[in-house]
Amino acid sequence: KGDGCDAVLLDAAGTLIRPRAPVGETYARVAAQYGAALDAGRLARAFGEVFGEMPDLSFDWDSMEELQRLERAWWQTLVRRVVERTGGRIADFQGFFETLYGHYARGDAWECYPEVPRVLDGLRAIGCKLAVVSNFDSRLPGILQALDIHDRLDEVVYSSEAGSAKPNP
């Protein structure tokens, strides 16, 4: 096309958005709300390890309700393993998990990299179709909406809904 392009596929976390606060700090802050003193550094290391050990965030599902139940169970397993790996204990683990899960569903838990709106607008200006393709869950569209970038995209595809995680073709 000369100076234009057909399409650009982008990842979400680590490319367009990032947690506003480091994951270990957020886990430690929420744990403190539930009476547990957990070390942010140990939580961050455990999160990285456990995340790498988890199965793909992709599922066979029949309804959005079932998909959201499967996603929540996946994350609950991850969070439980992270806490256990640090040697920590949280008496009301379910409350801790629900607070943490809800936190990461909100736009204010995330931020765009500063250049993202300008880059997306520039790509659109030269005719690019833009899609996010991410190993994420059903919270992603709402997060992107809250960060004012969803409407700059033509498509948002996340692994849990697609039933397949990257790099699976």
Please give a structural write-up.
With 169 residues, the protein is of the alpha/beta class. 47% of the residues lie in helices and 12% in strands. The strands form two sheets. The chain has a three-stranded parallel beta sheet with strand order 1-4-5. A two-stranded antiparallel sheet has the order 2-3. The protein is globular, with a radius of gyration of 17 Å.
What's the shape? Answer: globular
Order of helices and strands: EEHHHHEHEHEH
**In this structure, how is the largest beta sheet organized?**
3 strands, parallel
Rounded to an integer in angstroms, the radius of gyration calculated over CA atoms is 17 Å
How many β-strands, per DSSP? 5
Structural class: alpha/beta
Strand content: 5-15%
Helical stretch count?
A: 7
Sequence stretches where pLDDT stays below 50 over 5 or more residues = none
On the 0 to 100 scale, the average pLDDT is 95
Helical amount among residues, as a percent range? 40-55%
Distance between the termini: 26 Å
